[in-house]
């Protein structure tokens, strides 16, 4: 029983590690671009605030859009972690925690949607 | 432009270090430093602070999970309370005078600072028998303590009290827009009698999830300024990875001694805010 829990924790920590390293690399790359070109890619002190605009800027490697992509990866990582945990508890046949984790995941999604409506 | 970013980076390393050590988001360092020292607009400081919370959480969770200090079950179970609390708080916003909330929670923190001071010498909680609900949810756990050089097995009690406290923590983070790491550590330490190290590591695991829930809102409101948030994210990630290594080499009682002044500072700040409003 205990070894299974440890397996879950190590798996979650691997997912986290990938998310964190990728986001740090992308943010770092964006900062280097910013310093190298001296331009943010956007007029004045403005910057994109929606994922669509961010990805549009990323496609042409605007420094601020690259940074924001890295920040988006950072923000998504904890949510992704909760989503993955559902499957690891499912694999362990620990159904109480499948339900608990699924509830947390649904509440997270709801709060994301509410944020958009606001 | 580069100098400011370097200053932000250094402040963020410190915030990530302290945050990962104590299970807090580092917002108590980031927000005042950015607004008071660097004169950055409060709305960007709040956005940077939410990024700091997520970075502290993910950055330190990697190490703590690998070393099995974090109690994933306790974290997931309590996350139900904090996320529903945060939703409730978002709905209640505007209905309440925040003045009394600041006062009530400030006093509550002050009280817990005193009770923590009274048990400052205690290294590990003793003779805790698991409550029936804790047994049913398999909340008890074990971790290897690098300072004591032994595997510490612990039981969990006070599940209802801890759950209620977490719900309240969620509400205030939704209402007041402050991180609730300090309440999370308190709930696990004072109500559920978890070892201090497990409390701070598990709080770290949780704060990122709660913060991620509201990060989308901050992004669409234009609070997350890439020029400020980028050095914060990188600095905090670096600070947090140092903090996790240091934390494991500290005694729980030392950790408590670092936590108490922070608790005092936040409680006094909240009370002052409540009186002023």
UniProtKB/TrEMBL annotation, chain A:
Entry annotated with the keyword Transmembrane: yes
TM segment ranges: 15-36, 64-83, 95-115
Keyword terms of this UniProt record: Membrane, Transmembrane, Transmembrane helix
The keyword Transmembrane helix appears for this protein: yes
InterPro entries (UniProt xref): DUF1634
Protein name according to UniProt: DUF1634 domain-containing protein
Species: Ruminiclostridium papyrosolvens DSM 2782
UniProtKB/TrEMBL annotation, chain B:
Lineage top rank: taxon: Bacteria
Record-level GO cellular component terms: plasma membrane
Listed Pfam families: TauE (PF01925)
Keyword Transmembrane helix applies: yes
Localization in the cell: Cell membrane
Residues annotated as transmembrane: 6-30, 42-64, 76-93, 100-117, 165-186, 198-218, 254-272
Keywords of the record: Cell membrane, Membrane, Transmembrane, Transmembrane helix, Transport
Family matches, as InterPro entries: TM_pro_TauE-like, TSUP
Membrane-topology annotation of the record: Multi-pass membrane protein
Sequence similarity: Belongs to the 4-toluene sulfonate uptake permease (TSUP) (TC 2.A.102) family.
The name this protein goes by in its record: Probable membrane transporter protein
Organism expressing this protein natively: Ruminiclostridium papyrosolvens DSM 2782
